[in-house]
Amino acid sequence: MDLSVLRNKKNFICDMDGVIYHGNQLIPHVKEFISWLEENNKEYLFLTNGSGRSPRELAQKLERMGLNIGEEHFYTSAQATASFLQSQCPGGSAYVIGEPGLTYAMYEAGFSMNDVNPDYVVFGATKALNYEQIEKASRLVMSGAKLIGTNSDLTDPSESGIVPACRALISPIELTTGRKAYYVGKPNPLMMRHALKKLNCHRIDAAIIGDRMDTDIIAGLETEMDTVLVLSGVTSLQDLEKFPYRPKYILNDVGVIAGIE
């Protein structure tokens, strides 16, 4: 496969889980890929549908794995959600269900926390979800708050297997209220445009690398970017038959881009 066009791209947008690491373990050849990006003066951004960790915490996680990467190289669905809501309702308020990374992003965007009459109910995946939160969120949505999900992932991979993700966990609120959430993260092209803006580049000069056809690859296709599917995560070659679209490149892992076969 001729990768010269891909290797000449100036900007790379990379998913994290399944592309860079599994849980707390780096995927083989990732260090070589990061070194290749740095040595060739590529601009890069790690784009994750996760909303629980802030960019600083993600940088610290990779540092524990032996990668020294500045927090400016990370962009999360929490940040995309907060940025979108800031443009919709500057200085608004929200009832937030999620991990600290989501609450922090909302504060950074100028939102106040409100569990009485918020403009929005903002939902991100959390292991601490309880019935009281679902009941309160449902009541607030029925009273007029708009329902926002950080991403539309139904499941996430974990070290113990597949676990419910944002869209699965928010469904009781949707079913109770009869309202559909608006999801900001991948595959919403909105998040991709935020990423391109953060890199200050045009889509022609960028490629997206991911391990999921239903988020990473479709997001790239709908943004008209070159797409790279890596087989180091949740997707196998056999899985491709389930989808009516294909990525431009299919590689074993990111190391192939750096010349490691």
Poorly predicted residue ranges: none
Structural class: alpha/beta
Question: Strand order across the biggest sheet?
Answer: 5-4-1-13-14-15
Q: CATH homologous superfamily of the largest domain - what is it?
A: HAD superfamily/HAD-like
**CATH domain class name of the largest domain:** Alpha Beta
Strand share of the residues? 15-25%
State the major sheet.
Answer: 6 strands, parallel
Describe the structure.
- This protein is α/β, with parallel strands linked by helices and 261 residues long.
- The chain folds into 2 domains: 4-49 and 186-256, Rossmann fold, CATH 3.40.50.1000; 78-183, Rossmann fold (3-Layer(aba) Sandwich).
- 34% of the residues lie in helices and 21% in strands.
- It has helices at 4-7, 30-39, 55-64, 77-88, 100-108, 131-142, 166-177, 189-199, 213-222; strands spanning 11-14, 21-22, 25-26, 43-48, 74-76, 93-97, 112-113, 120-123, 146-149, 155-158, 161-164, 182-183, 206-210, 226-230, 249-251.
- Strands 5-4-1-13-14-15 form a 6-stranded parallel β-sheet. The chain has a 5-stranded parallel β-sheet with strand order 7-6-8-9-12, sandwiched between helices. Strands 2-3 form a two-stranded antiparallel ribbon.
- Helix 4 runs parallel beside helix 5 (100-108) and helix 6 crosses helix 7.
- The radius of gyration is 18 Å and the shape is globular.
- The protein starts with a helix and ends in a 10-residue tail after the last strand.
List the helices and strands and how they pair.
Layout: H1 4-7, E1 11-14, E2 21-22, E3 25-26, H2 30-39, E4 43-48, H3 55-64, E5 74-76, H4 77-88, E6 93-97, H5 100-108, E7 112-113, E8 120-123, H6 131-142, E9 146-149, E10 155-158, E11 161-164, H7 166-177, E12 182-183, H8 189-199, E13 206-210, H9 213-222, E14 226-230, E15 249-251
